[in-house]
Fold this sequence. Notes:
The complex is a heterodimer of chains A (277) and B (282). Chain A is mainly α and 277 residues long. Chain A contains nine helices and two strands, in the order H-H-H-H-H-H-E-E-H-H-H. Chain A has a two-stranded antiparallel ribbon with strand order 1-2. The model of chain A is unreliable at 1-10 (pLDDT under 50). Chain B has 282 residues and is mostly helical. Chains A and B meet through helix 2, helix 5, helix 8 and helix 9 of A and helix 4, helix 5 and helix 8 of B.
Amino acid sequence: MSAVAAKPQAGGAMNPTAMGVGVVMLLIILALCWYVSPTVGLMALIGIIIGGVLIGFGTHFVPVGGAPAAMGQAPGIATGVAMLAAGAGLAGLFGGAWAAEQGLMVATITGGVGGGLMMAITCMMVNFVYVFGMGIPSASGKVAKDPITGDTQAEYKSQGTEGHGLPFVSFVGGVIGGFLGGAGGTLIYLQLLTLYEATLPAVMRLPATQVLPIAVAMAGIFAVGLFLVNAVLTAYNITGTIEGPHDPKFKRWPRAIVASAVASALCGFVAILIVAI
Amino acid sequence: MSVKVEVIEGGIPHQKIMIAGLVSTLVCLYLTYLNVLTNTQMFSFFGGLAVVTALIWGSHTIKVLCSYGIGTGVPSAGMIAFGSGVIAMLLATKFGAAAPIAALVLAAVIGFILGYISNNILNMKIPAMVQALTEMAVVGALSLMGFAALITGGFTFETLTTGTVSLFGMSVSSSQISFIGGGLIAVAFLLGAIAIQHPFNATLGPGWKQDRMLMLTAECGFLSMIMAAIMSFALISTGAALLSLIVGIIGWAYTYNQYICLSKRDAAAWLDAKMIPEVEGH
């Protein structure tokens, strides 16, 4: 089979059996978590799963161009899905971690704003480089009209390309994606931090003030690990480039939701086991 | 069904590299346990060697996986390796002396499930996916454990979370000065994640040669080891840290030299360009 013939098959088909197996795995992990830590642990795990799903869903909004975008032959930001998701999510995570003492809601939204801001700045600077540096206009190759502004795209699109630059809808998608990713990362961090602050003093037999650096660092590194796992799984779902919420590939999100939920449940369960056994 | 873009021509088969990498990493990790038996910290540098061997195995796994066009870039493979590895490694440290074995088993389970998720739920349908993600999670967990052993001299949860700080001449136990509490684990995470994905990313293409890539991996591994050895001055005795640093520098110099030789061998032509001469009177 040649590479050309194989290309269309990497499509968006769902695999119902595997999805079912995924949901069953999720329920088994939840049951195991209820068995080892019925109250604190289970609540934390549910928060972690919600956070992971937010990351997985949010990544689909981010306009990822990859190498073709660097040559001005495809729309989006010229790097990979995992790098962009990690950048937005970690920026959000750092923002949210500063606000950790102000309660769950404030901190999560702060994290979201941090991630959204990072993506907004990235998208703006990318467009500066595209328009003023490379001299190309922004045009989408996937839709005839921008779904938000209604501007037609075809006149600005160079022949032989899939579009170029960062159309308005991709910009908005990037900011939404950054917001969801940052909020999800912060949610995971906060859940683990609350859990570790409550349980680590008893596990390590140390006073709470002594344990605080350990709790913060462990929650942080687990949040980073979970974030990268979710971001890469979503990257595998997108396989390459996506323009934003108007791209046909966006319709693959249900697969990513199940995948992120199972992966976050698994990794979150392992993170909870540290203090539960 | 994706198509394999490149094939491995000649060289050592992957199975052999995997077994050799796994065994030598575990042996090196257990050699750091001599620290506990002899009550010194002089054997910490074996942790760095464990990192190098694990990375060599891991970069070849990335080569096997990324030979199929996964379309997400090679760095993402390094990120998922360490993202899933750190989670397994932290839980495994709770198992005391059995930590390396526990890390191996836990990481294999996590990696296998992640492989199933990507191959079946996300419909990647890549034949090497499940095995590659399993291997990479193990590599991530074992190399982080190697960094932990190199920096702190041990791989148990107690060693990684407690340190001593001298206050007015007295040594006080503090969790702030430790591998996890001080955030050194985050640096180790990225030192490993970059070292594992860089070699294949840098050498891929039609002129790819296995020995050149693996030599570059060893070079990246020793470079990471030098960094980690510098960090270890904060946590272990100066003599042990110095020993790790010297081993790292010697290993790096040797592998760098070898890598340059291999690059010259594989290059079409080698021109020793001189610096642009500075002409007076401008």
